[in-house]
Amino acid sequence: MFEFSMDAHMHFDLYENRDKVLEYIESKKSYTIAVTNLPELFQRYDKKYADKKFVKIALGFHPELVAEYKYQQVLFHQLVDKTRFIGEVGLDFAGASDIEKNSQIAVFQNILSWCTNKEKILSVHSRAASKEVISILDGFNGKVILHWYSGRIMDLETALSRGYYLSVNHQMLESERGRNIVNKLPVDRILIESDAPFTKGMKSKYTLNFNEKIYLYLANRYNQEIDIVKKRIKANFAEVLNSILD
């Protein structure tokens, strides 16, 4: 059977045994984008884990942390040329005040301006703010991955028309809304993520078992052999990375 594991969005640094998590990923040859929530965290871990072949540390600034750590925009700008991988960034308007929303928008706009013409790969958060995220992204010329998308279908259609990718996790398949979103995705725009440790079964231990659950669902959805789906997902990720995967 054709084997291919990937994780387009996970938080390795939120595990206490992060070294073992990364060793596990490397041993499984699982292509992984390990996002961070703050620039200072990227700075700390990028140097430490620069030798990893399959794990790419992403420079992030989570929207929920913008209000408290807004001063770290300066550090983000200083670090932005050190990596192609940017995430987790975006907007989260769930429970946010108008002041917080405005701060998030300003920081996200700044991040995009710093990433212009740099062949960046963005993993973007858009909870309760899909309209605003899609609007702000208009004209951005890097690669965009919408992570755990839960927004409006009309915004999803716009995203797909622009060639954005969506990273799908196993927990999305457990709700009607999540399945409805996944079912609207063309197979050539799908990546796989865990969003570990925030998804079910991932809080205490990181495992790649979620890959098979999603492959099986997609194989049934597209009425294809599971190996065909795996090869398509691998091709998608290779296109995002603009490289040939082993």
Question: What does this entry look like structurally?
Answer:
This protein has helices at residues 18-28, 39-48, 73-79, 98-115, 130-137, 153-161, 176-183, 210-222, 226-241; strands at 6-10, 31-34, 55-57, 85-90, 121-125, 143-147, 165-168, 190-192. With 246 residues, the protein is of the alpha/beta class. The chain has a single domain (6-241), classed as Metal-dependent hydrolases (TIM Barrel, Alpha-Beta Barrel), CATH 3.20.20. It has a 5-stranded parallel β-sheet, with helices on both faces. Strands 1-2-3 form a 3-stranded parallel β-sheet. The longest helix is centred in the middle third of the chain and has 18 residues, at 98-115. The two termini are 16 Å apart. The model has no long low-confidence stretch (mean pLDDT 95). Pfam families: TatD_DNase. One of its GO terms (molecular function) is metal ion binding. InterPro entries: Metal_Hydrolase (IPR032466), TatD-like (IPR001130). Belongs to the metallo-dependent hydrolases superfamily. TatD-type hydrolase family.
